[in-house]
Amino acid sequence: MTTRTATARYEGFGKEGKGRLDSPSGVLDATPYGFNTRFGDEKGTNPEELIAAAHAGCFTMALSFALAKAGFSEGSLETTAAVKLEQDGDGFTITHSDLTLKAEVPGISPEQFEALAAGAKANCPVSKLLNAEISLTHTLA
């Protein structure tokens, strides 16, 4: 079992509050977040961006391992995840994570690639965590 942690600190409340995120690895080091980084264009991050990064990374790694297990050792994968936050009554809900994959895997058939990518989408731990619709579009060079 692996456990990872992060800490969020928020000072003040609502739109006027300011937050920061920290992680033991140092990747997040007093990284600012708040209303204006989430809904505006202020420099910093937001939960949806972090979920998108986690989903893109998890899916891409899962597909990489599936390809290696199937005997492929050359190529590249690049995935963008677009996480959608939508109004839900008085609050908000993350409704979608749309994965867009560009792949280069010499020697793989489109059918085998499709099957491995679908398996990675369904089985990466972040996909399993999300209570949202997940789509996958891909191009195979």
TrEMBL record:
InterPro entries for this protein: KH_dom-like_a/b, OsmC/Ohr_fam, OsmC/Ohrsf, OsmC_Ohr_Peroxiredoxin, Peroxiredoxin_OsmC
EC number(s) reported in the record: 1.11.1.29
SUPFAM superfamilies attached to this UniProt entry: OsmC-like
Entry's Gene Ontology molecular function annotations: peroxidase activity
Gene3D superfamilies reported for this sequence: 3.30.300.20
Name of one Pfam family that matches: OsmC
Domain of life: Bacteria
UniProt keyword list: Oxidoreductase, Peroxidase
Statement: the UniProt record of this protein carries the keyword Acetylation: no
Keyword Oxidoreductase attributed: yes
Protein name, per record: OsmC family protein
Organism: Sphingomonas agrestis
